[in-house]
Structure formats: structure tokens, C-alpha cells
Amino acid sequence: MSSVAPIPSCSPAELPVPMTPSPFSFSVATIRWSSRSPFQAANLFLRLLALVFSFSSALSLAAPSPAKTMIGKSPSFYDDTKLLYCFIVNILTFLYAAYQLFKGICDIAHRGVFISDMVSDYISFIFDQFAGYLLISSSSVSVPVIQQMDHRTSLWKAATVSVCMSFALFLVIATSALLSGYKICKRIIW
Question: pTM for this one?
């Protein structure tokens, strides 16, 4: 005869309650910045620098001081196509940097829902290369125009500041392109 051992009865109050995570609990492991790559913060900082440099470069060309020449007409950047090209490239780079900064903030806030990482890496790499080429070509075209200007005009000062800021912007975009290239190589290898 087999006898079955009786199961001890427990009241529901005596059973252990499983712990469920609360969305309001704070833990060091739940901080998003710690789980993010350090390249993402560096990339966001570089995009912010690109936004500031491109804005200041375009603004310096668009708003020189209103000093008059002997003829009575103030020289402007839109009178010369090469300076206008430099201005347009700086505006396009400003728009691109604003888009990249917005995308980076959305990636942090929404965990990469805006655009997939693979597509984003390729777009960033291609457009960083393109923006770098446009910046260096517009700056190199503007230098001979600046050398032929009268050094006492406000447009000469504004164009000089704009080209210097464009070169600094090129260095920032080139660094961003290196980070984008690193992310693509890392994606291909792994």
C-alpha cells in the first residue's frame, strides 16, 4: 500500500510575493548614458560644434558691419559668386548638422527609433564626406577673393572670419566622418 504524504496547506498570506520591477525605482544600472557608447556622446558634441561653427560662419558673411566705401555702396557677399558659394555651403552644412543633432537627441531619447542604426551609419558617413568636400572646396575658392579685397572693408573682415570658421568646421566634420567610418568598419567586421 502506498501512502501519499499530505501536502502542508499554506494560506495565501504566507506565500512569498515575487518582486516586480517598478518603473519608479532608480538604479545605477538603469541610467541610459552608462549603456550608451562613448562615441555617441562624442558624436553629439561634434554635431553641436558643427552647428555652432556653420552658423557663425554663415552669419559672419551675412551680417558684416555697414561701413560704406567711397562710392557710397557697401560691399556684400552676394556680389561675388565665390563668396555666395561659401555662404550656401555653410547654410547647407548648418542644416545637415541640425539634422544630425536632432537625430542624435532622438536616438538617446527614443533608443534609436528615428532611423535604424545601419542606415544611419551609412547616411552619416556619406554625407560627412560630402559636407567635408564642399567645405574645403568653398573655403579654397574664397581665399583668392579675400586676397584681392581691400583690407579696410568690413566684408574683408567678415569673409576672413567666415573662411576661418569654415576651416574649423571642416576639421569637426572630418572628425565626425572618422567616427562614422569607424562605426561602419565595426559593423562590417562584427
Answer: 0.74
